[in-house]
Amino acid sequence: MYKSVTLSIVTAMTLLTTVAIADASSDTDKKAKPATEGMLLPYMSPSKGRKLFASKGCVVCHSVNGIGGEDAPALDAKTMSPIMDPFDFAAKMWRGAGTMITMQEDELGEQIDFTGEELANIIAFVHSTSEQKKFTKADIPPRIAKLMGHLDDESDEHEKEEHDQ
Questions:
Q1: Of 1, 7, 23, 146, which is least surrounded by CB within 10 A?
Q2: For residues 124 and 49, is the Cβ–Cβ distance under 8 A?
Q3: Of 73, 11, 87, which is closest to residue 44 (Cα–Cα)?
Q4: What gap in Å lies between CA 165 and CA 156, rounded to an integer?
Q5: Nearest to 75 by CA among 99, 102, 55, 50
Q6: What does each C-alpha distance from 160 to 37, 137, 155, 156 come to in angstroms?
C-alpha cells in the first residue's frame, strides 16, 4: 500500500512539474502549486533558471551547448530523459555534493547556496531545450566570466608546462 501511495505522489508531482515546465513561456509572477496536502511544488521557470545557471556559477564547471566548464558533466537538455523527476535530479546533486562543494570552494571561493525556488528554476532550465537555445556567453555575468577566463588561463599554463616537459 505504501509503495502505491508513494508512487502516486511522485507521479502527481512529476506531472505537475512537467506541466509547469511546458507552461514556461509566460512564467512571470507564477506561484507555487499545491502538490499534496501540506506541500507546495514551486513553479519552475526555465528562463529564470538560465540566468541563475550563469550567475550562481554552475557554468564554471558545467556546460550547456558547449558554453561553460568541462570539470563536471555537460547539462544539455537533449541528453536528458524526456520526462524528468526533479527529486531524482536533486538526489543526483546530493550524491555528488561533497565533490561539488570542494570544486565550488576551489573555483568560486565559496559554496553556492540555493533556495528551493532557485534550484527548481535551474532544474527547469537544464531540462528545457527551447530555453537552452537562448543560452549564450552574454548570459554569464562579468564576475563569473572573469573567473572562467582565469581558469582557462590556468589550464593553458598547465598544458604548456606539460608540453615543455
A1: 1
A2: yes
A3: 87
A4: 14
A5: 50
A6: 59, 26, 9, 6
**Cβ neighbour number for residue 90 with a 10 Å cutoff:** 15
Residue 8 belongs to domain spanning: 2-164
Amino acid at position 24, single letter:
A
Decide which of 150 and 76 is more confident. Answer: 76
Amino acid present at 92: K
| Residue 77 DSSP label | G
Instruction: Report the largest interatomic distance among the alpha carbons of the chain, rounded to a whole angstrom.
Output: 65
Q: How many domains does the chain have?
A: 1
The pTM score is 0.71
| Contacts within 8 Å (CB) and 24+ apart, 134-141 | 134/47, 134/50, 135/50, 135/53, 135/54, 135/64, 135/65, 135/67, 136/67, 137/67, 139/50, 139/51, 139/53, 139/54, 140/54, 140/59, 140/67, 141/54, 141/55
